[in-house]
Amino acid sequence: MTAVAARPVASPAGQDVRTSTAASFEHWRHLVAESFVPLAASTGNPDNFRGRMRARRLDRVAIVAVSSTGHEVHRTPALIAQSNQRYFKLNLQLQGTGLLIQDNREALLRPGDLSIYDTSRPYTLAFEGDARLMVVMFPWDALSLPPECIAQLSAVRMAADGGLAAIVGPFIAHLAENLDVLSGPSGSRLAANAVDLVSTMLHSELDMSPDRMKPQALLAASVREYIDAHLADPLLSPASIAAAHFISTRHLHNVFHESGTTVASWIRTHRLERIRRDLRDPLHNGTSVGAVAARWGFLDAAHFSRSFRDAFGESPSDWRRGA
After folding, report:
1. Domain boundary among 176, 206, 236
2. Which secondary-structure segment (H or E) carries 132?
3. Residues 132, 244: one domain?
4. Residues 231-290: pLDDT tens digits?
5. Are residues 19 and 130 part of one domain?
6. How confident is the model at residue 230, as a pLDDT?
7. Domain holding 220: CATH number?
8. The pLDDT of residue 261
9. What is the pLDDT of residues 114-140, one digit of tens each?
10. Mean pLDDT of the chain, nearest integer
11. End position of a domain, from candidates 206, 235, 261
């Protein structure tokens, strides 16, 4: 559950921490209703309700620490219909218990447990008593796994004492404890590292084996990993990707069509994200914008500039100066 009102992709990488404390449950409803992912809230004890959120956005990643008394939040079909943007949320339970319901599955989360869910499908989060949790929200295309694979893990408890959750959970908890110092390129890098760790954890949970995933989902995951490893290659194309996987380009396009995107769009988005990150990285201060773009496969400066502005609403040079 988050209350992040502005678009993450349009915000400065080092935006200050935003703290929202509910004066009443009606105030909490208002905060939730205006959140970036709108939610409906309810409680059986509105007179004694207490709620507080501390949020920081780092590029496309929103990190939110939430503490509250007992209540429920619901992501309904009507609320989903208000936006066509798709995000994943990862919850880390820090105190108390939480019940996450999505896709006819229920996950009872205790301190240290993690669970992921999809904002494009209905879900419910319920807290019977006082609870504290950490939420990391990021666009669906930030993960190398295709959405149909993530759907197999929605509302599945990843226990604090087992697997990679035992490593990922403490890392995210430390982010929650240090929101004030997450700023600039280092903060953005840590947020990106957190998403990479989440992706690795989810890969591990699925075990990436044929008995756990359909062949088409395995292919989609393999293709995305290949693209990620070859983003810097200016010759990366649907034809080269298809050839590397011994499939036709038509089959490749169908794989991406099932996820609501295209091969070209996926490549462009991930290249632009790498460039955007590098432009604010002090290690690349002496490298021209054009050279940074070329490192990630954008050899046409004019095309790159238009693509960057279309994606982020400002020129690459303006973005770099805002660091």
Report:
1. 206
2. strand 131-139
3. no
4. 999 999 999 999 999 999 999 998 888 777 899 999 999 899 889 988 888 888 889 999
5. yes
6. 92
7. 1.10.10.60
8. 85
9. 999 999 999 999 999 999 999 999 988
10. 86
11. 206
CA dist., res. 154 & res. 71, Å (int): 21
| Same domain assignment for residues 113 and 47 | yes
One domain for residues 157 and 303: no
Taking phi first (over 0 means left), then psi (-120 to 50 degrees means alpha), and beta for anything else, what does residue 268 get? Answer: alpha
pLDDT > 70 fraction of the chain, expressed in percent and rounded:
92
Same domain, 175 and 316: no
Angle among Cα 194, 268, 250 to the nearest 5 degrees reads 110
Give the range of the structural domain holding residue 240, as residue numbers without chain letter: 215-321
Q: What type of residue sits at position 249?
A: T
Contact 263, 257 (CB under 8 A): no
Segment 68-105, tens digit of pLDDT: 999 999 999 999 998 777 899 999 999 999 999 999 99
Bridge partner list, 66: 53, 133
Q: For position 323, what pLDDT does the model report?
A: 58
Q: Specify the number of domains making up the chain.
A: 2
| Residues in contact with 279: Cβ distance below 8 Å, sequence separation at least 6, in sequence order | 289, 292, 316, 319, 320, 323
Cα dihedral angle (176, 62, 257, 83), rounded to 10 degrees? 130
In whole angstroms, what is the distance from residue 253 CA to residue 248 CA?
9
- What value does the CA radius of gyration of the chain take, rounded to a whole number of Å? 20
Q: What is the pTM of this model?
A: 0.77
Q: Using an 8 Å Cβ cutoff, are 35 and 4 in contact?
A: yes
Structure tokens at 127: 């807290």
Helix (H, G, I), strand (E, B) or coil at 134: strand
Helices and strands in the chain, H and E counts: 12, 11
Task: Annotate 76-109 with three-state secondary structure.
Answer: CHHHHCCCCCCEEEEEEEEECCEEEEECCEEEEE
Task: Supply the CATH number for residue 144's domain.
Answer: 2.60.120.10
